[in-house]
Amino acid sequence: MLLSEQCYQKIDRELAKYPDDQRQSAVMAALAHAQVELGWISPETMQELADYIRMPAIAVQEVATFYNMYNLKPVGRHKITVCTNLPCALSGGERAAQHLKQKLGIDYRGTTDDGEFTLMEGECMGACGDAPVLLVNNHRMCSFMSNDKIDTLVGELSGSTK
Q: Is the pTM of this model over 0.70?
């Protein structure tokens, strides 16, 4: 088993929300729980989830590859996604991205040599009025990101424990 018993308990809570013949409705939540635990979704993880949910593996793969919130290859411990949709880009998103690229020494889709950070570009995060917007590990949205706030965020994440 690739996933822990605790992860399966979380997936079971998601499955309980749906009738038995609609278990596949929990696939997005199951993928999210697996990603939180493992950091990314490997083909083996997709197969394990497919078997557990009782749905075709290709259907799990279709969901995992359709949405950009799922990491299909290993990423850094901290994945920072910069909104590059037009409103954010025009309101500082490009500046924020350039600052992060320079500070981390990587480009989009790159991971720092120490495995701490991966930088991604993302589409609309639904907070255009808060631009520039960053998303950390798909769970923490950071708004109005000046260079100083970016430096503070990177410092905070660098100092966090594993």
A: yes
